[in-house]
């Protein structure tokens, strides 16, 4: 059923320029659980929103954008990662290219007990990055923009991306999960802690990595 309040909000956003303005931490929309998507926008408007979110993700640049990050309180996110990183970095982080996809009403659960810690950033928290321990492998369920169900496992960096974006839809930011002693400004992270794993940061800043050092910061 079309929701006129939501459609007016989305239309007002889409009538403006691209990229869409990103909402920053401190805005309540980032802290409230988003509503399940149940067709409130209609197919054409949903596609326009998805296209605008993709353009916004590319412009940022980032590897994901959740609807609350552009002020829309619905359980929708887009992800895409060309994984254009050095081979050593990609190997250490399990970072492999991910095609563009839309996540509607996603939910995840860990597969196994292994957790890994890496630096993360967020387009809604500009200027900072921190180490976040996350499940190394997750099972993700949800739908795509056409309503088709999916049930897939993600490992490595793709698992980190889908956890980060799905968390946004529940009102959780990476700030809530981060190792607080690892917080760095983005320039510091790039200059001092951009090694393939954050082991040097853990040693010098005084925090512990999961698994005693299992191993940049994805932004979404």
UniProtKB/TrEMBL annotation:
Entry EC no(s): 3.5.1.88
GO biological process, one term: translation
Reactions it catalyzes: N-terminal N-formyl-L-methionyl-[peptide] + H2O = N-terminal L-methionyl-[peptide] + formate
One example GO MF annotation: peptide deformylase activity
Catalytic residue positions: 165
Role noted for this protein: Removes the formyl group from the N-terminal Met of newly synthesized proteins. Requires at least a dipeptide for an efficient rate of reaction. N-terminal L-methionine is a prerequisite for activity but the enzyme has broad specificity at other positions.
Family per record: Belongs to the polypeptide deformylase family.
The protein's name in its UniProt record: Peptide deformylase
């Amino acid at each position: 059923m079309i929701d006129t309040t939501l459609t007016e909000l989305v239309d007002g956003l889409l009538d403006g320029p691209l990229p869409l303005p990103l909402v920053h931490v401190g805005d309540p929309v980032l802290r409230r659980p988003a509503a399940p998507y149940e067709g409130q926008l209609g197919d054409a408007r949903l596609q326009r929103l998805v296209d605008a979110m993709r353009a916004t993700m590319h412009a940022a640049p980032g590897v994901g954008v959740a609807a609350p990050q552009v002020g829309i309180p619905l359980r929708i996110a887009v992800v895409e990662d060309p994984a254009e990183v050095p081979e050593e970095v990609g190997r250490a982080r399990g970072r492999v290219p991910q095609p563009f996809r839309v996540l509607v009403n996603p939910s995840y659960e860990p597969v196994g007990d292994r957790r890994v810690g890496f630096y993360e950033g967020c387009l809604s928290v500009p200027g900072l990055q921190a180490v976040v321990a996350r499940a190394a492998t997750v099972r993700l369920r949800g739908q795509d923009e056409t309503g088709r169900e999916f049930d897939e496992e993600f490992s490595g960096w793709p698992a980190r991306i889908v956890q980060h974006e799905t968390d946004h839809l529940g009102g959780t930011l990476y700030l809530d999960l981060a190792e607080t002693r690892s917080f760095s400004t983005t320039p510091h992270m790039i200059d001092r802690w951009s090694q393939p794993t954050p082991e040097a940061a853990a040693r010098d800043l005084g925090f512990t990595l999961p698994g005693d050092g299992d191993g940049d910061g994805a932004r979404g």
